[in-house]
Amino acid sequence: LRTEDVKDCDEWVAAISHASYRNLATEHETLMQKYLHLLQIVETEKTVAKQLRQQIEDGEIEIERLKSEIAGLLKDNEKIHASPAAAPTDDDSEIKKIKKVQSFLRGWICRRKWKTIIQDYIRSPHAESMRKRNQVVFSMLDSEAEYVQQLHILVNNFLRPLRMAASSKKPPITHDDVSSIFLNRWVRSVSHKSSEE
């Protein structure tokens, strides 16, 4: 447990003397569950955002297609009105074409309104709060990942080598010493430092 100065060494020794391995294992399990839950939330948000972007793109493509069809139908309608001698059967076809144009116009208006609603929601306070929430979630994920990595380093680089050394033929340290270092109340100290960071 080498440190830069004596003060840091004393702080770590004091923290390790109050550590508890059972609490450490419980805290690690809780953090892993929180980490998995946050990963599920992030994946869900990514899926929803992707679906919304796809719907917006599809809506824009559909609007362009409808515009071109409406322009063609309006030209046909002008040609029909320009011909003075129209047979009675042509009236039925004109009415059908007019109804078709009206249906296309209604669909285009609905899609434009839907696009406006989506854009208003993107600029709304709720969407802004959701973006801030996602930032908090990502920062929590980064913090939890760093904390788990530090625990991994502590166990693999310190606890296990000391236990192996205590089990050797000429042990430089006993199992009781290892227990007194690592098996008290170390978790609370580390959790306090993580919350401060």
UniProtKB/TrEMBL annotation:
Keywords: Coiled coil. The keyword Coiled coil applies. Gene3D superfamilies: Dbl homology (DH) domain (1.20.900.10). SUPFAM superfamilies: DBL homology domain (DH-domain) (SSF48065). Residues 42-83 form a coiled coil. Residues 132-184 form the DH domain. This is Ras protein-specific guanine nucleotide-releasing factor. It comes from Xenoophorus captivus. The lineage of its organism: Eukaryota, Metazoa, Chordata, Craniata, Vertebrata.
